[in-house]
Amino acid sequence: MNRNGSRIVIDMSWFLNSLRHCFIPLWRFVGSVLGSKSKDVVLSIEYYCCDRPNPLLQIIYLVIISFTYYFVAKSSFPYIPGYYLSEIHWYLSLEAVAIGILLFLLTSFSDPGTITADNVTHYLSAYPYDNIIFSEKECSTCKIPKPARSKHCSICKRCVARFDHHCGWMNNCIGERNTRYFMAFLLWHFLLCLYGTVAIALILAGRLKELKVVYILTVYYGIEKTLWDLAPHVVQWLLGSYNTQILLMVFLAIISMLLFGFFGYHAKLCLSNTTTNETFKWQDYMELQRKVKEAKASAAALRQSISGLSNERKPSVSKWRSFFRRSPLEDVVVVKNNVYDKGFIHNIHEVVSPLSTRTSFTQSKFKSS
């Protein structure tokens, strides 16, 4: 993964941590004003929101999608059928929202790939250690061997295979078994928001046609029939007559762009068979290796300089040549060797058909039992 993608994840993590640290001054202020019992209330709220599973963001998602659909239906459905849209979009939009909610529920309540004492042996064989960012160790909480690519979620209190991240919106971990549902959720909601944006735009364009706004502006008001002259008047008319629809269209367009970026980032991870958790591990490893190689390069350059000073017969180097000489630190290259990346076709197949859902996995489990 490139540095820009990693920087996005780091910035998001930094923002969430900063948001969480906002509780500290609030906790101190409430304690000084209302007493120690009120501090316990603030700590309980912080624990409920950040340190344990809770349906808060799930409820917010359902409220957002329900109210958005309600306002779209109330403001835009009276103009369907119209000049560009037929009445089938009444039912098509409802079905699209229902599928989105279904994917949300599927991602929220599906097993992300919980590792237990019964199946840990099979996950150990399915995901071998690369001895780079994953090495053999035991989970200090679950007291079972920790397979490669797994992580113990401190919020869900369980080890998850091929752990990606804990998603507050889903109130669930995203791991080996439900990454496919999570990706489908992101892609579908991007298409859903894009569909809503285009549909409202076509409704507004249809109203322009049906009411002959351009004709009236050019014939009765004498405005030149050019885009440069007509655009301000058309926009002014739309804002005055259909401000709710325009507000909804802008809102859906912004959300669709955010979802597209988030889906693109996770799609790139899936294509390289990498998780968000592994991204941080690779960053730490690459940074450590870069520092080690830079230290070795600096030591070698120092030895070379010392030997050059001791050799009196060595011809002097031009000042200009020494000024433009390439630094040994610029030649330091750290290569990322991801043994789990086996080609994008195999990587996609691993996401769509997780290893623990295949017949070979269940058969090996049956034989061992």
From TrEMBL:
Q: Which UniProt keywords apply?
A: Acyltransferase, Coiled coil, Membrane, Transferase, Transmembrane, Transmembrane helix
Q: Where is the signal peptide?
A: none
Could you tell me what reaction this enzyme catalyses? Answer: L-cysteinyl-[protein] + hexadecanoyl-CoA = S-hexadecanoyl-L-cysteinyl-[protein] + CoA
* Coiled coil (UniProt feature): 285-312
* InterPro entries hit by this protein: Palmitoyltrfase_DHHC, PFA4/ZDH16/20/ERF2-like
Location(s) in or outside the cell = Endomembrane system
PANTHER family, sorted: PROTEIN S-ACYLTRANSFERASE 17-RELATED, ZINC FINGER DHHC DOMAIN CONTAINING PROTEIN
Reproduce the free-text note on domains from the UniProt record: The DHHC domain is required for palmitoyltransferase activity.
Q: Would you tell me the protein name for this molecule? A: S-acyltransferase
